[in-house]
Amino acid sequence: MAERGWIDTKPVTAQMTLRAPRVALVIPAGPDWHLAARRALHAASQVWGGAGFVVVPYEDDGTVHATLLAAVREYDPDYVLRLREDLVGSNEQGNSDAGEVARQAISARCSDYRTATAASIAVPGLGDSRLSFFDAGGASLLTAVASFGEMVSSASVGAASGLNDCLGVAAASTWGQADQPIATDTSDGDEKIRRRAVYAILAGTPPNNIRGVTNLECDDSNLWSDFARTSIGLEAWSLLGPGPTPVLMVWGGSAADFALAMSWDRTYGQGTWIPDSWWSTALMQESVALGLQRVVQRAGDIGRQIVVTSMSLDLDRVQSLLSEVTARIAQAYPGGRAGEGDLSQFRVVAPQSLEFGRSNKWQYTVQGQYATQWSETVTDDGGSLEWETLPPIPAVDLTELRAVKRLSWQVEMSLPEHDIPGTRAVATSALLRRGEPLR
Question: pLDDT band at residue 121, thresholds of 50, 70 and 90?
Answer without folding.
Answer: very low
